[in-house]
Records
---
Amino acid sequence: MMKKIIFSLLVFFSVNSQAGVWDNIKKGVSDAGEAISDGAKSLTEETPPDQIRAEIDAMEKETVANLLGLSASAKDQFNSSYGYAVFDTRKFSFLITTEYGPGVAVNRSNGKRIYMKMASGGVNVGLGGEFYQVVFLFENEAAFNQFVNDGHQVGSEAAATAGDDSARTEVKFVNGIAMYKLNSKGLKLTLDITGTKFWKDEDLN
């Protein structure tokens, strides 16, 4: 799969004229995204749904426990929220940035779990990878249902000011949603999920 992704990206370097630069970038992004999607689908097909759900549930529980232990304000928001969603995210950059991962949304009033997916992609200059979790807290039923049922696409950068500065700053609900990002070092100060799409996982629900 990785060879296919790298091959798609190298299409960029075969450009013979300035006029074709953007078309080649877009094709490289599209082909790389399809390669990642095909690989993820193959892994899902080989793993029993019950096992996938159990792994997502374990990730969700650990992430929520970490968040509530790191931020008193997040704990207060969680306790007053209608529901929440947690996603385990993989972000890679090699001329393009690709971000994807599984997750689950939980209705706190009845405990119902809705398994979901997330993905995004774009052109970038850089090389590297990042592993982290994203937590959404929903202030009310309307915000939760819109996220779960209609899908949610973030069109601008969301800055979550917590982490090391949590004693001095708090994440606020915006349009009924508060967002947090965690990695192995704790809470992060910024969360950029521009253009990220979230939707139900038909194979797990």
---
Amino acid sequence: MSLAKNTACVCGSPHPVIGCPIPRFYDNGIVSTIGGMCAFMAVMGIGRFIYTALLPGMMQTYGFGEDVAGVMAAWNYAGYLVGVFAMRKERQGMRRYALMVASLFLSVATTAGMGLVNATEAMPALRFLGGAASGSCFVLCSSIVLANPFAIIRPVLCGRLYGAVGDGVALGGVIGGTFGAVGGPDAGVGGGAGLRDTLDSTSIL
């Protein structure tokens, strides 16, 4: 009996992959991996790391020092840890997919929000929520993509999935450097828009 016949479908139904109502082209693992890559680029590369490139400009514009920057970074890491632990036991099904989509949109909102607020007191809270969104999406998206047996038996797909984090960091650096030079810390709004466009591609998950 093949691996596909013994595995529940990635759509969350109890039916085997072969009997899944999702079109057959989804079964090869490539489409779901591409969707996962887009999600990782959005929430990890842009949502989590774009402000690394923007931070010097923000420190100069808002007049805060390394202590405040360190606090924001700490809250972001704390949020990431909370998100990972909160989603570690999510089971297969539509609820898991819905939570992943919600974490994507939360990442968009918090990334853009950093460029809209002027009060530095609100920034740690936004970075905490952004970190929670990143951690949640990382766990949920990984479990959704790797639930496809064809993604597991093709190591190159797993490598590309997690390699997308680095791709997103590079993309975030380009966006942050480009928008930051033009619009300063308000580039977070542009980063949020770019993140939104990126996550639109995750609908193929």
---
Amino acid sequence: MPTKKKTPLKNRLMCAILYPEDNPAHKQALATLLKLYNCLAIHHNADTYLWDEMDEKGEVIHAQGELKKPHYHIIIRFENARYISGVAKELGIEENLIQKCTNFNSYVQYLTHMDEPLKHQYQVSDFIGTLVPNAIKVLESPMSEDEQVFEIQEYIETHNNITYAMLGKWCMTYGYWSTFRRNQSYFKEIYYERKARKYNEKYGKE
């Protein structure tokens, strides 16, 4: 049976991660982004491991409190939707370093760690790029919990194939984790109702 070809990912808003301190291609990509693209970047150089990380043998490979490898997070905004593969090729970096960004506001909040008190707290002054004024507006009036609940519910309703674990990972990535954790029973009800509805639609059960 032939393998189903994946549909290329296309979006107006993307987020990327780069390690320019020890990768010349990443250093050049960051310089290009800041010079030619409508973007927002922040240097995460104070992230630490919140607990010991171990290998398969149970040996500690990263101790609690150890600094993580410094890196840049970048949000890129386009006037029209672009293919991730094309942007990666333009920048000369691996395609898996770029992904679709679903919400600018929530990702800005996530990048400061404002909802994660155990992590290093980054400031608006740490941002660079053309979208800094937009980030300032977001942080002056952050998204309310009600707005975050709506965003999570909308994501559940529009992504038919996600697992509940994938939903949790998405919430962690985009800064919704605290809201997600506090409203677990509500989101589980929505998730499993949607799953049952899709099953019934597929098999014609009423």
